[in-house]
Amino acid sequence: MCSIYFLLLAILLPCCFEILSLSCSTVMKDTLRYLAGIAGPSGYGSKTTAQQVTDNSSSPLHRLTAIITGATSGIGAETARVLAKRGVRVVIPARDIKKAAELKEGIENENPNVEIMLFEIDLSSLASVKRFCTQFLALGLPLNILINNAGIFSQNLEFSEDKIEMTFATNYLGTCTLLFFHYHNLE
Ligand SMILES: NC(=O)c1ccc[n+]([C@@H]2O[C@H](COP(=O)([O-])OP(=O)(O)OC[C@H]3O[C@@H](n4cnc5c(N)ncnc54)[C@H](OP(=O)(O)O)[C@@H]3O)[C@@H](O)[C@H]2O)c1
Q1: Architecture in CATH of 50-183
Q2: Which Pfam families does this one have (predicted)?
């Protein structure tokens, strides 16, 4: 009986190592491709800019409406800048309206014809997310693009006003509520 187990182990172990090394090498290859900026199946890589992606866009972007969360800095700010420049009506829900207004002003200085709308939102608060959703729906605008970009990584154990762990509340609950609210309106 014992020898059957040893035999099975002898057959299975090399298979496990083979599968493990295959998946490791895939992960390593993907990481190297990412670091080198090599384009993936989409034709874009980590070094492709938002400007380049929209340069190649086959469909016209003007007259579309986009909601972009987390547009007050980083990737979201650049996405907002490029989409607004391409003629997309950009709706920015932000928890720091002053910061959002500065971003809006910067984009408008570059392109005076852009259309940017600012709203308050704190994604960690379900009440705030619902408030923003109601305000947006009241505008009667279509929603063509929803970019759920905002996110945090809270180093400390913090809780939202709904008494939910802060990173989870912001990145998942708030963001999903926003998506569910607008899911049926996405065109
Ligand atoms: N950069 C990277 O290498 C990288 C890698 C992996 C994943 N990501 C993810 O990609 C996204 C963008 O990255 P990034 O580097 O551009 O991030 P970032 O510069 O840190 O910007 C995060 C944005 O999210 C907003 N935000 C945070 N908590 C919020 C809340 N409770 N309610 C509303 N807005 C909130 C911030 O607003 P405030 O201005 O008010 O703080 C800011 O505009 C993030 O979700 C990040 O986790 C980034």
Answers
A1: 3-Layer(aba) Sandwich (3.40)
A2: adh_short
Distance from residue 75's CA to the centre of ligand 1 (Å): 8
Could you report the average pLDDT of every consecutive run of 10 residues in the chain (187 residues)? 68 69 78 90 91 82 92 97 96 98 97 96 97 95 95 94 97 94 74
CB within 8 A of 79, min separation 6: which ones? 50, 68, 71, 147, 149
For residue 70, the ligand 1 atom closest to its alpha carbon is: 43
* CA 70 to ligand 1 center in whole angstroms: 5
Residue 73 CA, ligand 1 centroid: distance in Å = 7
Q: Is the CB of 122 under 6 A from ligand 1?
A: yes
Is 181 exposed, middle or buried, given 0-12, 13-18 or 19+ CB atoms closer than 10 A? Answer: middle
Contact at 8 Å (CB) between 96 and 72?
A: yes
**Pick from 39, 42, 21: nearest CA to 30:** 39
